[in-house]
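Hey team,

Filing this mostly as a record. A colleague (T.K.) asked me to run one chain through the structure pipeline before their review meeting, and I want the input and output archived in the tracker in case anyone asks later how it was produced. No errors, nothing strange. Just documentation.

Input sequence:
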Amino acid sequence: RKLDRGERITLESSMVKVFASETAWRVADRALQIHGATGLLKGAPTERFYRDARLGRIWDGTSEIQRLIIARMLLG
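Output structure:
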């Protein structure tokens, strides 16, 4: 809605990026815990999901940078 009105969405987009990437990382980590070493075998679905989840944490700015953006915007 904000974007449609031409407003900036820097805070919201940073929050979404951190939430989504960290959630994907936690899910991938739990999947590997369940599947054990076989979850990391080349070609296993969990292996690919694990790699993709890791990439999500660094692709659009690391989670740490996103958190800095959020903090700066909230603290002014």
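Quick notes for T.K.: DSSP finds three helices and no strands in the chain. Residues 3-75 form a domain with the Butyryl-CoA Dehydrogenase, subunit A; domain 3 fold (CATH 1.20.140.10).
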